[in-house]
Amino acid sequence: MRLDENNRIAYNTDITALTPTIVNTGKDISPASGTAQNFTTPINYTVTATDGTTQVYTASVEVLPINITAINWKTASSLLATTITYSLASSGKNIFFDNHDGLYVSKDYGSTWNKTSG
Question: CA-CA distance, 115 to 95, in Å (whole number)?
Fold first, then answer.
């Protein structure tokens, strides 16, 4: 899994156990490279130089929002042969439903729905 140039990661990525690989030319880094971290909040990394001095660096990850326009929509049904069309799309546990009233999103396999502005 790769971050983009702005430390952003793909939508719907679980950031609670990311395992970063850190290249360190000093003496030590804590937490260690390859240790799973929960990036829902920023993580402080303490780097110890070969002379024993330390510097704290903060790392954070931003999850990109979903790109609704990039979803492949398919017509599910039409109402009364009118121009009103209902469409469904899914991405992981997320389901998108589009109708004459707007776009609805479920982030829990359809258990709950919220109308979006997008």
Answer: 12
